[in-house]
């Protein structure tokens, strides 16, 4: 399991966001409307089009929080849009659907996932949630159960769907016991459900000042390029 240590200044930034309920710590009814684009979460973003003369494209649904929504950036700079570019470059019959909601927790995700699944068939489900739980100090067991609920709902709706689980880390100021327990929930879920696991979404990006926006949490465009490369290493063998 990858162990990730954040700089002290980054930890303080995270803690301040928790106390201030900014960005990640905001509620699901925040002024962003649920996405980096400021659009309603009811309008999922298809980043490619298909013509009637072509076979229907399969859908890769990215279900997450502000990291998925490319908070603070042009949506085309986010890692989901960059994955779409890779799909098109490789002439692969898939399209990405960005269902990132700023401020989303695992509990919020468990509540909205059924509505999202009803909007279109899902062939690959990329689950990126938990960062806001860690910032708030939510009991890791509660986060585990919420993520398991999401996984159960996806599998019930689309039994043949492949699920990729992106792990997250809790800030070190939460204490060693908490950060260890939090990290372990992703491996436990992957083992129990036989999921493809990406141990840490922000690998090689988290805690590196030049790759993050001034808030110290949300990656820059350059940071998203690194995330996209890491995600692609996970997705490509599946596709």
What does this protein structure show overall?
By secondary structure, the protein is of the alpha/beta class. It is built from eight helices and six strands, in the order αββααβαβααβαβα. The chain has helices at 8-20, 66-69, 79-89, 106-119, 131-136, 140-157, 176-193, 221-238; strands at residues 45-46, 58-64, 94-100, 124-128, 162-166, 196-198. A six-stranded mixed beta sheet has the order 1-3-2-4-5-6, sandwiched between helices. Strand 5 (162-166), helix 7 (176-193) and strand 6 form a beta-alpha-beta unit. Helix 4 runs parallel beside helix 6. The radius of gyration is 17 Å and the shape is globular.
Write the layout of secondary structure elements.
Elements: H1 8-20, E1 45-46, E2 58-64, H2 66-69, H3 79-89, E3 94-100, H4 106-119, E4 124-128, H5 131-136, H6 140-157, E5 162-166, H7 176-193, E6 196-198, H8 221-238
Parallel strand pairs: 2-3, 2-4, 4-5, 5-6
Antiparallel strand pairs: 1-3
Helix pairs in contact: 3-8, 4-6, 6-7
């Amino acid at each position: 399991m990858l162990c990730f240590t954040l700089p002290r200044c980054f930890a303080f930034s995270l803690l301040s966001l928790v106390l201030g309920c900014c960005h990640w710590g905001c509620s699901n009814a925040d002024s962003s409307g649920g996405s980096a684009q400021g659009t309603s979460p009811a309008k999922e973003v298809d980043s490619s089009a298909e013509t009637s003369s072509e076979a229907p494209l399969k859908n890769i649904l990215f279900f997450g929080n502000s990291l998925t929504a490319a908070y603070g950036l042009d949506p085309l700079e986010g890692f989901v849009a960059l994955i779409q570019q890779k799909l098109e470059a490789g002439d692969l019959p898939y399209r990405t659907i960005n269902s990132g909601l700023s401020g989303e927790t695992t509990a919020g995700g468990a509540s909205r996932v059924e509505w999202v699944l009803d909007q279109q068939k899902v062939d690959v489900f990329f689950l990126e949630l938990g960062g806001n739980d860690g910032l708030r100090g939510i009991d890791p067991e509660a986060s585990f159960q919420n993520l398991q609920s999401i996984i159960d709902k996806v599998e019930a709706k689309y039994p043949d769907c492949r699920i990729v689980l992106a792990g997250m880390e809790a800030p070190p100021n939460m204490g060693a016991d908490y950060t260890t327990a939090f990290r372990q929930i992703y491996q436990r879920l992957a083992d129990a459900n036989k999921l493809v696991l990406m141990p840490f979404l922000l690998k090689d990006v988290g805690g590196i000042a030049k790759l993050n926006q001034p808030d110290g949490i949300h990656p820059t465009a350059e940071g998203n390029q690194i995330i996209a490369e890491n995600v692609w290493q996970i997705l490509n063998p599946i596709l």
